[in-house]
Amino acid sequence: MERVIVEKNSEFTGTVESFGSNGEGIVYSGKTVFFAPFTVVGEKAKFKALKVKDNIGYAKVLEVFTPADERVRPRCPVFTKCGGCQIQHIKYGAQLKLKTKTVKDALRKIAGIDYEVPLTVKSDRQYEYRNKLQLPVGVDQYGNTVIGFYAERSHRIVPVESCPIHPDWAEDIITVFRTYIQQSGVRGYDETTGKGVLRHIVVREVEGCFIVTAVTNGEILPKKEILIGLLTEKFHAFTLWQNVNSGKGNGVFGEKFYLLSGEGKFAATEYGIRYEAGPNTFVQVNSGVCRKLYDRTVRYASGSGAKIAVDAYSGGGLLTAMLARVMDKAYGIELVKEACDCADKLKYFNKLEEKMVNICGKVEDVLPRILKDVSGEDIFLTMDPPRKGVDRETLNAVLKSGIKKIAMISCNPATMARDVGILTGALIEQNGELKKCGDYGEEGFYQIETVQPFDMFPQTKHVETLVCLEKK
User: Which is catalytic among the residues 82, 209, 342, 411?
Assistant: First the structure.
């Protein structure tokens, strides 16, 4: 058979055969595999090749000839332009199956682990579920200040007036800041010139109260009294912070926070535990799914036979406190000082002074110190790392620790699969690189008890996963 060669900018017709790890459709033209966003398995469509290298390409769908039954009309007017959601065009049940496949494929392809992953636990809210809003502020091609979300794989801001995966208060926040910008003359940050004042708007909702942070390029937030007045008109309970970020990198927050209005932090109650959150305290963005995830984790801890819990990457201490209630003692390890301070207050709020210990530091430094004082036989370990996964030093310390059971919570299937591969011995290091072992390690490694995805982020490609591991 003659090989079909598809060149850049050429058009072709094909049928979507499966989903990729980012929710895009996979379609073949000759021997070239194309990734085509915003398509659904089974659809026959016309595509345009945007990029082709070797046998891999990226395509844009031009016309769908036979829409799949799983296709739905997206709610968002800027869907496909904004990079926040990738699968709003797919029925929710199919989204859950897609995310299950994403986790299963990551374990198989990255770690060589073939595990039958159960269906992703659903979110009771498919829209308006986020308790955190993060908006970049910049300038458009005409020099006008814009507020919105980044386009996919870009720092070009797509202006928005509202967002369907956020509650109605997000629209109020956008309206307030647009009015403030008009009345104050403040300009958005221009990444190319390094000029402009306002870089990001970050808001956390805590039981109807709002922690608002204006991230600025310099020490001054001009005419801040206008912003405070506008927020006062819209929100009955808010606190306003200014964060200074004059760096050139992609990080949202800089190191300096200034309290401009209000008490700075707000308290809330979850699982009967009173906790406090500030502008830089980690809290899961979907409260309903978080309850399901933490409940499963605590039940696993309760049946582990361990006496002491260690909660690595513990944030504001909510899960640490939940573990302290079912264990003799629980240690929380967190790098962000603000979060540690909130965890300390939580300890006193809930009369857990004798059962909860919060340590501010890097997990790779603190965990080995705890293991010197406490036998691994008595420890149940939870790890909820950032997207980059668990530090290699930490994984090595765990493998040497004697800890019997681990609950790993991850928002990134790729780094989760890598870390689970190392802990199970499915991945071994050779000449500085990880290689698939072909079989699980024996003595000293872990085996998987359960893998359960949770849909913390409906309408997006992202998925939260709980992996429960037991020492062999």
Answer: 411
